[in-house]
């Protein structure tokens, strides 16, 4: 990605590209004309139109009037086109290729510099006669060279061919090819557009006639090809924030990188410690039940004296881009260098270094040797920051790392203004907000640089500390607010009158030291990855210690029912999460109810009050969904057999804890009181109108349909998401199966789920207090009634028959409750509501639709 004011080495440039078909036609005319020329004149014409020749031209002739840039793969710029000069010794040799967008999609889709649009892949340039085959070989097989297994893997695991291109020039040591293959959708960016555009009929396609090379660069360890692609659609209302959304220019950077040859020894991953993993298939070893082998991603520091404290031979040097605002550079630097505390414990000194981007012509951020930390602007914030990692897909060795910081981080002080200060009864002010923003930036950089070192998220680390720990600033300054910077930690905020620790994770936690020890400590006398395993097992065996536990992204997929352990969660704190959630919900409700006391100040538009209300409301909605994870949950242990203090891999969440979680949902989600706020607050939550003569864009004006905050709709959407989670087919299957593993009454049953929800949502109909129900309560009852009806008449695939039967029984109960309520004194709205519920239950019970048997899950 370009740094706008960074001096660069001289590079070839191109502002247009002649289409391939046009070029071939011109080449044919030139060939006919050249037949009448003298040999010398013909040689000159052939040099201008090299693709017309039937065999490669001499390198000296072809490059006579060309600009040649030496590097890993040389760049030849000639007649407005770029060519690659490939040493013959590089033919058939593994290189690494990445496809990275150098520009974003206006705040949607991939951001500039993201290396994850397409994975880093091995690429080979193979010669066949007078052509070169651009190929992605399959690199998943672990085989010994020239072994029978190598022959079998090559036959059964196919490669992918990118292009076949003629050799246009040749010397005794190199061949030259055109780069047209990289004008196509090598990165499969089409899939990114499809993910952004919701309507298939408005999909984007690549316009090859408006795609061209913009520049190319050659460095000792990598070669850059940058392409401007034009993506088009017939629809004017697809991607927002483009001058003309029907035609969007995306610049792609194709990076060809030298594969490392530094003697790096891979390390075999362990599920008890969280590193990113490179999957491989071991065909040489038939003694294990599966062939899967996973190597971790990590930086190769190459300590000078393995096993003894020494300077890293190959430190990870971060370069702070000159686009980082000056006021943030100091805290970014401090956060990055904090990791040296962990590496010093394993004998690697000065593992991480930080430098400012130098202001000289020899520096270019596209050089793969620079690990850039950048600050970028987007009209629609996409994230706080993101780690950028390039690894060798054969071994997991990292060859480049960096961080993109979204400029939204500069607005982190809003969290202090709208949440922290009101909750703690503290004064506002720019200085306090700036100090808070610096803490947030430090925490984010600690987290993202942890990814750069190979670490995954750790969403169980928060459980290590008690509320008392979190309320002690001396504790949090030393240990952080969770056992790992790799958690998604919320603001460590406690109500006014309660002691208060640091708001953010400003220090490495015990898990971080543990993970670095496991991933980077030298294992004496181990000359193969397998030889390291016994020692690494000793470190990883501490999983059952709350300080060293690890669980990651796959363990928080609660929406589908896949995740089962309620302890694995994002944005929660303390070893008593249900108690913490109750504290947060009460505090956030109080903040929202008192917005009128602080916002807006005199002379400020009421948009400020709206922002001050929506900030805690967002947190309230996030927190109120968390108790649902406990219902039907099981505690999942990653400990291996024989680990200290280990327990069985699955243990039931107690029925008492499950019911306590349900009561939180009943009180803070499904009740009317949970969504009642001070009318003086609600009546000021409006926004300012904006008028523009130009085309619309969401970044400057994207008004809600309503001028007020739609509390009822927010409540209904939140309730619906929780019910989706609780009654997902996979969740229902798991709860139904609990009776096979645990004694009756020790954990909840599927009947408990239906009964608790019925009593919690329909209870006021049964006990005759329905007239006191408000609109939020009535909507929740309607949502659940319709869900029961669908579960009985047209159940989702995979819904257990027990759940269908219970849904029918709940409808019977609802019909009885409604019949009893209708005999009482009801106002018009309440009567209409109860009669509608009665009609839903009656129609469902009388339906003649066939009830399909649930699909059986595959046998493992």
Write a structural description.
With 860 residues, the chain is of the alpha+beta class. Among the domains are: 12-137 and 157-189 and 208-222, no CATH class; 576-689 and 705-726, no CATH class; 751-860, no CATH class. The chain is built from 23 helices and 25 strands. The two termini are 46 Å apart.
Secondary-structure map with pairings?
Elements: E1 12-13, H1 20-34, H2 39-48, E2 57-58, H3 59-62, E3 67-69, E4 74-78, E5 81-87, E6 95-101, E7 121-128, E8 131-136, E9 141-142, H4 148-156, E10 160-170, E11 174-178, H5 189-196, E12 205-218, E13 222-232, E14 247-258, E15 277-282, E16 292-296, E17 310-311, E18 316-320, H6 326-337, H7 340-344, E19 348-349, E20 352-356, E21 371-376, E22 385-391, E23 398-406, H8 413-424, H9 430-452, H10 467-470, H11 473-479, H12 510-520, H13 529-540, H14 577-593, H15 607-624, E24 634-636, E25 650-652, H16 655-668, H17 679-682, H18 711-726, H19 729-737, H20 750-766, H21 775-793, H22 801-821, H23 828-846
Parallel strand pairs: 2-10, 9-15, 17-19, 18-20, 18-21, 21-23
Antiparallel strand pairs: 1-12, 3-4, 4-5, 5-11, 6-7, 6-14, 7-8, 8-10, 10-11, 12-13, 13-14, 15-16, 22-23, 24-25
Helix pairs in contact: 6-9, 8-9, 8-15, 14-15, 16-20, 18-21, 20-22, 21-22, 21-23, 22-23
